[in-house]
Amino acid sequence: MNRWKFFDITHRDHLICNPLSSEKLDEIVTLLDLPRGARVLDIACGKAELLVRLVERYGARGDGVDLSPYAVRDARTRAEARVPGSALVFHEMDGRDFQAGPGSYDLAICLGASWVFDGHRGTLEALRRVVHPGGLVLVGEPYWRRTPDPEDLRTADYDAAAFATHAGNVAIGLELGLTCLYSIVSSEDDWDRYQGLQWRAAERYATAHPDDPDVAELLQRQRAGRDAYLRWERDTLGWAVYLFRSDGHDLTPS
To answer: Would you identify the CATH topology of the domain 14-146+157-186+237-246?
Structure first.
């Protein structure tokens, strides 16, 4: 089953495609305190809810990048409906391949897609290069709440080295010369909403589209994910948004 079709179906009812409440997203938007007309880059922008809110509050302009054609479609539709005529441009492509000039943005974002840059450290390194000194880097990243059981990881799509602790995620930014300004942690309710909406969407799609040849795989993958979440991930894996400031660095692309 195409990964983007799977993601589109399972996230059809999500306003935000991360374990983050609308209220917490608003808190983040307020704390960014951007200048009017700030230039923003969002890698793996999803449905562009954050970008749209930044336009609504700050008149932001800039770029949203996502590899999913479904996400880019939804992002454009959302922007046209809520901020028509805004200076947002959406690009259907791999964020790693997006050409951004060094120091050209006030804010660079990647929420929940650090795989684009091979992990949290790579994401921070990539984003800090495209913001000017004093610019902001906003990332969303999982972290281990406790040491995972090796048996639980045996059937997972990642290993223990895939994520750091919450403190470790901040420390990586500090090692790269970034200043940590804020972090906000997803609650169990945030996680339950994010996960539960996926279960519901998959089951509803399967009922409505019984002749879709992808339904069997859709349900198998979603139900396996549900069971893993309930059995161990809910108590083991956290997620947080981290806000860093870049205080000056070498802007030479690597």
So the answer is: Rossmann fold (3.40.50)
